[in-house]
Write a structure and sequence with these properties.
heterodimer; A: 396 residues; alpha+beta; Cytochrome Bc1 Complex, Chain D, domain 2; 15 helices; 4 strands; 6% strand; B: 73% helix
Chain lengths: 396, 392
C-alpha cells in the first residue's frame, strides 16, 4: 500500500473522532522559522517538531523565558538549606565531635557537600518535574504517535503543529495558513479513542502496581546490600584479611609463629644501657654516685617536668614535699623522708640509681619515666630539699 | 542557523573624536596622579604599579586567549566580535611599558630580592633578579609575538579573504594555549605570589587566570556593546552574542570561585604552618571585611546577576555586570597585593584611583587609536556569516 493511500484510509477511519491538530511539513529550517514566527502571531497552542535543535526557535515561536529555571533554583536552594540544617543538627546536637581540630560547626568543610546536594537535588527535581508536569508522565500515548507527521519530523522534515485546543483554531483556516506558509503536506491529526482509554495516568492501576514493585524492589535491594551483603563472603565486613594476626600460629615461618623474635643482638632505638647493675646493690649505688653526673641543667622547663612527674608518680608514697607522708593510708608502707641527711648528702646519681633500679620495697621506675624525666625528677627532689633548708641567698 | 547567504555589508565608520579626547584626558589625569604619588606616597604608588601591570597583563593576554579559543574551538558566535578582541589584545604590546615602573623598585616590593633564610635560600635558584627579568622578557616577548602573528594574518584576511590564514591561526592556537597556560601561571607566581615568598599555592596561577579572564570578558563586553549599540560594528550582532559574552563572565566567576575556594579550603583543612599565614593576614583586622566582600562581589553578585538569560541579552544590564566583574577583579588584585604592605587593614588614597584612571584611559585610547587604522569587524573571515546568523 503506498503512503498516500494509507494516509487516506487513516483519515477516513478517524474523521469521526475528535480533531487534535492540523499539521504541516516543511523542507528547510528557514521555512520552519518563518512559519513558526507567523503562527505565533495568531496561535498560542502550537508546537514545532524538528529532527535536530534549530537555534533561534525560542524567539521565532515567541516562547519567552522558561520558568523551569526558577524551579531548579528554589528546590536546589531549599534542599541545600535543609541539608545544612541536618549537618548542623548532627554536628552540634546529635553527635558533637571534634574533627581535625576544627570547630563543631565546620562550614568550609561542608561547602563541597552542600554544593553537591544543591546540584543533585536541583537537577533531579528539574527532570522529575519535566517528566511529570510537562510531559505528563506516566502518560504513554499521544495523538501524534505513529503518525506520518512524526515519522518525517524525526527523520528529515520540519513540522508545524497547530493544536485544535487553541481558542483561535479553525480547521479550514489552519489548513489555509499552513498551505499559505508553504507546507508540503498538510494533514489533520485525530485523537484515537482506543489509545486514549488505554493510556496510563498517575492513578491507573498498572502504573501504581509497577511503581510499587519498583519502590519495594529498590528498597529491598538497598536493604540487602547495606545490611546483609556486606557481612557475606567474600566481603564479610572486611574481617577476613590476608594479614598476620599477633599471637596466632602462622605457616609462613619455620618456627610456626606469626610474631618473630628480633635478630640476636638487636638494640632498641634510643636505648641507653645502664652500666651500674652489679650483684651487690650497695657497690652499684656507690659506683653510680662516683661515675655519673646529672646531664640536665636546672631550668624552669626541667623543673616543671620534674615536678609533673614527681607529683604523678612519686608523691603517692613520698608525699608532695618528699616528707614520706604517704597518701595510701597504710595500704603500702610509707618510705622515709627525702630530707634525711643521707639523701641530702647523696650525689644526684645516687638518687637516679634508686629511681632506675628501686630500693628495698620501692620498685624500679625505669619503665614509667624516661631517662631525662628521671634526671628531671632528681632536680626537683633537690629543689624540694633546698626549700626546707634554704641558703641565705635564696631568701634575698 | 541560516542557510541562505547574505552579502556582508560593512562600512567603516570613524569613532567620534570625543571618545579619543576623553580617553587621553582620563589617561593623562591618571598619569599625573600616579606621578605625584611616586613623589608623595612612594610605597603606595609602587604596589599600585604591580596591580596596574597585572590587571592590564591579564586583560590583554586573556583577550588573546579568547581569540585563540575561537580559532581552536571553531566557535562562530565570537567571529563578528573577534577584531575587538584583537584590538584589546594589543594591550600586550604595551606591557613592557607598564612593567618598567616596577623594576627599579623591586628591592622595596619583593622580600626575596634582599633577604634570605633557609626557605628563601632553597628558592633562590628560581627567585633571583636576573632569572626574574629573563622570565619577564620571555613571557612578554612570546605574547607579543603571538599577538603579532594572529593580528597580521587576521588583518591580511580582511582584504584577501584567504582561508589559509584561518587554518594557520587554528594550528597556531593549538600551540598558544599550553604556552599561555604556563606563561600566565609564571607571571602570577613572579609578580603576585612572590610578594610573600615563603608562601606557596599550586592553585595560584589558575586562580589568577580565572580572575583575569573574567576581567577581560568584562572589558570586551563593554567595548563590544558600546561599539555595537552605536552602530560601529556590523548589522547582525544581537543579544545572543552578548549572551555568550555574559555566559563567559558567569563561567569565569564560578571558575574563579572554585579555584579560590579549593585553595582556601585545602589550606584551611591541612592547617600547616607554612601555608596558613597568607590567609591569616587576610582574615585579620579589617581585611576580613574585604575577604567577605570579595566572596560577595566576585561570586554571589555575578551568580545572581548573570544567571538569567534575559539579563545576558540585555545590553544595559550587561554593561552594568561587565563593570561589576571588572571591579571584582580589581578587588581581587587589591586583596592579593595590599595586605603585604598594609597588614593592619585596607586603606585607600587618590593613588589607587589614579592607577585605575590609567587603566581605563589606556584602554579607551587603545581602542580609539586602533579603530583609526583597522576595520572593527574581521570582514574576510569565512565564519563571519555564520557568526552573524548565530542564535541561541
Amino acid at each position: 500500500m503506498s503512503k498516500k493511500t494509507e494516509n487516506t484510509v487513516m483519515s477516513e477511519q478517524k474523521q469521526n473522532n475528535k480533531l487534535f491538530a492540523m499539521t504541516g511539513l516543511f523542507d528547510t529550517p528557514d521555512e520552519i522559522m518563518h512559519a513558526a514566527s507567523e503562527a505565533s502571531k495568531k496561535y498560542r497552542k502550537f508546537d514545532v517538531h524538528t529532527p535536530y535543535p534549530v537555534h533561534g526557535m525560542d524567539d521565532a515561536m515567541g516562547l519567552g523565558e522558561s520558568p523551569i529555571g526558577w524551579v531548579t533554583l528554589i528546590i536546589g536552594t531549599t534542599c541545600m538549606l535543609l541539608f545544612l540544617g541536618f549537618i548542623a543538627w548532627v554536628s552540634l546536637v546529635n553527635y558533637p565531635n571534634i574533627w581535625a581540630g576544627k570547630p563543631y560547626f565546620n562550614l568550609p568543610g561542608y561547602i563541597p557537600i552542600l554544593f553537591e546536594v544543591t546540584v543533585l537535588t536541583g537537577a533531579v527535581s528539574t527532570v522529575l518535574i519535566l517528566f511529570f508536569i510537562v510531559s505528563g508522565f506516566p502518560r504513554n500515548n499521544h495523538p501524534l504517535h505513529d503518525t506520518p507527521y512524526m515519522q518525517r519530523t524525526s527523520d528529515d522534515k520540519f513540522g508545524l503543529c497547530l493544536e485544535a485546543a487553541d481558542a483561535a483554531f479553525d480547521e479550514a483556516e489552519a489548513k489555509g495558513l499552513l498551505e499559505q506558509l508553504g507546507a508540503k503536506q498538510v494533514q489533520p491529526v485525530y485523537f484515537d479513542p482506543v489509545e486514549e482509554k488505554s493510556g496510563l495516568s498517575l492513578t491507573s492501576p498498572v502504573f501504581l502496581v509497577v511503581s510499587a514493585f519498583v519502590t519495594v524492589g529498590i528498597a529491598t535491594l538497598a536493604y540487602f546490600a547495606l545490611n546483609r551483603m556486606v557481612f557475606m563472603p567474600p566481603f564479610t565486613f572486611m574481617n577476613q584479611q590476608e594479614r598476620v594476626v599477633a599471637q596466632t600460629p602462622n605457616g609462613i615461618f619455620a618456627d610456626g609463629r606469626s610474631m618473630q623474635l628480633p635478630v640476636e643482638g638487636t638494640v632498641a632505638r634510643g636505648l641507653m644501657p645502664y652500666p651500674f647493675k652489679l650483684d651487690d646493690p650497695n657497690q652499684a649505688q656507690a659506683m653510680a654516685g662516683k661515675y655519673m653526673a646529672n646531664p640536665l641543667p636546672v631550668t624552669a622547663a626541667v623543673l616543671q617536668t620534674g615536678k609533673m612527674q614527681f607529683e604523678s608518680k612519686c608523691s603517692a608514697c613520698h608525699g608532695y614535699y618528699g616528707e614520706g607522708d604517704s597518701r595510701l593510708r597504710g595500704l603500702f608502707p610509707a618510705p622515709p623522708t627525702l630530707h634525711s641527711k643521707k639523701v641530702t648528702e647523696w650525689e644526684d646519681a645516687n638518687i637516679y640509681h634508686v629511681i632506675t633500679n628501686g630500693q628495698n620495697l620501692m620498685p624500679s621506675y625505669a619503665k614509667q619515666l624516661t631517662r631525662d624525666e628521671r634526671w628531671a625528677v632528681v632536680h626537683y627532689v633537690r629543689a624540694l630539699q633546698r626549700s626546707l633548708k634554704p641558703k641565705e641567698t635564696d631568701v634575698q | 542557523m541560516s542557510s541562505t547567504t547574505h552579502a556582508i555589508h560593512y562600512e567603516k565608520k570613524n569613532l567620534p573624536a570625543l571618545a579619543g579626547t576623553i580617553g587621553w584626558g582620563v589617561l593623562i589625569a591618571g598619569l599625573a596622579v600616579a606621578g605625584a604619588s611616586f613623589a608623595m606616597d612612594p610605597l603606595r604608588a609602587k604596589y599600585s604599579s604591580i596591580m596596574l601591570f597585572m590587571f592590564l597583563a591579564g586583560v590583554g593576554v586573556c583577550s588573546l586567549f579568547m581569540v585563540a579559543i575561537e580559532y581552536l574551538a571553531g566557535a562562530v558566535w565570537s567571529t563578528p566580535l573577534r577584531r575587538v578582541f584583537e584590538i584589546l589584545a594589543s594591550t600586550v604590546l604595551f606591557l613592557p611599558l607598564f612593567a618598567l615602573p616596577i623594576l627599579p623598585f623591586m628591592q622595596d616590593l619583593y622580600l626575596w630580592t634582599h633577604e634570605t633564610d633557609e626557605i628563601l635560600a632553597r628558592k633562590a635558584a628560581y627567585l633571583n633578579q636576573p632569572f626574574f627579568l629573563i622570565r619577564l622578557a620571555l613571557i612578554l616577548g612570546i605574547w607579543i609575538l603571538f599577538y603579532k602573528l594572529y593580528s597580521s594574518r587576521s588583518l591580511k584576511q580582511d582584504t584577501t579573504g584567504d582561508q589559509q590564514m584561518t587554518h594557520k591561526n587554528v594550528k597556531m592556537s593549538a600551540l598558544f594555549i599550553p604556552v599561555f597556560g604556563i606563561s600566565i601561571t609564571a607571571l602570577a607566581i613572579d609578580f603576585l605570589m612572590s610578594l610573600e615568598p615563603h608562601w606557596f599555592s599550586t592553585m595560584f596561577g589558575v586562580n589568577f587566570f580565572a580572575g583575569s579572564l573574567v576581567a577581560a570578558l568584562g572589558v570586551l563586553t563593554i567595548a563590544v556593546i558600546l561599539l555595537n549599540e552605536n552602530g560601529y560594528l556590523i548589522k547582525g550582532i544581537i543579544g545572543d552574542h552578548y549572551y555568550s559574552l555574559g555566559f563567559g563572565m558567569f563561567a569565569g566567576c564560578v571558575f574563579w570561585t572554585y579555584t579560590a575556594f579549593s585553595q582556601g579550603m585545602l589550606i584551611w583543612y591541612a592547617n600547616l604552618p607554612e601555608e596558613t599565614p597568607w590567609f591569616l593576614h587576610r582574615w585579620e583586622g579589617s581585611w576580613k571585611v574585604i575577604t567577605i566582600a570579595l566572596i560577595l562581589v566576585h561570586f554571589i553578585g555575578p551568580l545572581f546577576g548573570l544567571i538569567q538569560r534575559k539579563n545576558k541579552r540585555n545590553p544595559h544590564r550587561m554593561l552594568f555586570m561587565a563593570a561589576w566583574v571588572i571591579f571584582a577583579h580589581m578587588l581581587d588584585l587589591y586583596w592579593i597585593v595590599v595586605p603585604v604592605f598594609q597588614p593592619k587593614g585596607p586603606t585607600l588614597a587618590l593613588t589607587e584611583f589614579g592607577f585605575i584612571a590609567i587603566a581605563v584611559g589606556f584602554l579607551i585610547v587603545l581602542v580609539t587609536q586602533q579603530a583609526k587604522k583597522k576595520n572593527l569587524v574581521a570582514i574576510g573571515d569565512p565564519k563571519l556569516q555564520r557568526g552573524l546568523a548565530f542564535r541561541l
